[in-house]
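Exercise 4. Each item below gives a protein and its sequence. For each, produce the structure-token representation.

Item: Kell metallo-endopeptidase (Kell blood group) (Phocoena sinus).
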Amino acid sequence: VFTSWLSAQRSPEEGLPAVHSRQWAMARRALMTVLLFSLILGGSLLLWGYVFKGCGPAHCEMPVCRDLLSLYLASGNTSVAPCTDFFSFACGNTNRTTSSFQALAKENKRRLQRILEAPGSWRLDSGEEKAFQFYSSCMDTGAIEGAGAGPLRQVIEELGGWPVSGDWTPLDFNRTLSLLMSQYGHFPFFRAYLRPLPTPPYTPVIQIDQPEFDVPLKQKQEMNYAQILREYLTYLNRLGTLLGGDPNKVGEHASFSISINSQLYQFLRPPEQQAQGKLFQMVTIDQLQEMAPAIDWLSCLQATFAPMSLSPSHPVAVHDLEYLKNMSQLVEKQLSKHRDFLQSHMILGLVGTLSPALDSKFQEARRLLSQKLGELTGRPPTPAHPRWMTCVEKTAAFFKPTLAALFVREAFGPSTRSAVREGSFHLCVSSQVTQLQVKMGAPEWALKPDPARQEYNDIQLGPSFLQSFLSCVRSRRARVIRSFLQPFPNHRWQVLPWGVNAYYSIPDHVVVFPAGLLQPPFFHPGYPRAVNFGAAGSVMAHELLHIFYQLLFPGGCPACDTHALQGALVCLERHYAAFPLPNGTFFNGSRTFLEDAADTGGLAIALQAYNKRLLWYRGETTLPSLNLSPWQLFFRSYAQVMCRDPSTQDPQDTHSPPTLRIHGPLSNSPAFARHFHCPHGTLMNPSSRCQLW
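Answer:
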């Protein structure tokens, strides 16, 4: 086309002498070359533009991505400029009073609910079927209501009866106490449990600690003390009435029970003394018998921790020896004067312990007590769970091997495991230096379940739900004891597969990320990798940094430049303190500095890992309709994890308010300002930043 055009444009100079003709020919060829080069260059630019436009990050159209997009659109407020208030940009429309982790924990329980309500979807043996049968009986509220207090009265008769509601056949005090501890899981005067010691060599040992009190009966000068006593008395009277007791006798015995609890509470060491003193004291059972003789320690502990073989010389860890001495004196005094009242005290406490397995009248009494105490103490009452959640939690506690294996098969299949391994490779570079072990998903016994662990031969279901519940309590305790008696060379997981709390184990030098954490909206193999690294990746990196916490304390890092380290910490605290906070929220840098440092470092490590991932692999995707680049989506996903109503922040929380958990780390990242094109000097692109990690 250009050749024809040039031919048609010949000038009169064509008839010039040859020398001029040659010069013109050369000029014409040069012109054609320039024009052709321009055509090729222009066409290439058009082609490149088309190619790059078509080969940019594809949109993830999978259902899981659509669900995630709906969550992001519902929680964010895109009318807010991200450079001036990224919290509002990402979380401006959220009205969630719980954290993202609490919401994920609830969703994992929903998944367990779906598993338990579809037994036909699984191939189950007779042992595994018991888990589904227990859940079904727990959900059968009609049968539970129909049985009323009858099953509970039967339990009380096995303990010798109750002076208030009927015939009482006094048993030996220590026999009753032994039955309460071993058969019903109730510890009225002290707690006894088997756990590893909190200090090296971390061997399992029986530990004796203070009991769990229904009500904190503090000193009488405590504000609202009289009202708290009245509410607790009302609760105990209600329990006695439900059991058919004479109202006058019930009131007298309930008042005595409150007096016992109040005296036991006064025996406790103040919290400041507990912090200053030893965590525990090792004594033998024989020595404990001499110091607190009212309790037959050997018989009570032997019954509770069977099949362990105990002797008078067996060591136990005591957390508050003075409390046990005073408790023993109080019990001896009451046994000589008010043995029937002491029986009532133990029975009323047992009813409270068993209330989750009783009918709605007992549970409503418990709920009202929690509500009133919350109003009087200013603490939020224990939230009322829907019935399905209560039953899921109980089934999961009693049939852990079965539920763990089913949850792993359902929520942590091969594709998820592969995606987790792919992403975690870049996050765990530091473990090569520190010899850190990183475990993800579930313990080996859940990934490769052993049918023998799921037989539950010692569990007898029925005829009432309370009896099923008690049989499961005994079976679980026996399994726990047997597990501690067996050699266990590897790390013992402290979280269930459906849990959402990652943790670092100091004695084993292990970081654990359960399968429950690696779920939507934090992680999914079908998500854009920017989401997985920004959400789950930042959480994982945050947890990995816990192993370096000791370096941040004065003297914790002898090889570090102490002056520079303290300067970086002061810089970080000032950096956080400079941000405005919503009304009703507060910032205490001295309480939150460790978590603030982990948030800031975790984001930086996750971003570094994501960038490395992009160098190694292709095919990045993003979410439709958000108009965010992969890097912008990375930061948006990090913020989504932190979304929460700031007014619900617990003043004692060791984490900063959600606005600071978003603005602090993001504004400290130059990459954030670069990818969101934030002008210098805006909230999210400050003039100075802190270098800590």
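Check: Residues 1-28, 30-54, 429-433 have pLDDT under 50 and may be disordered.
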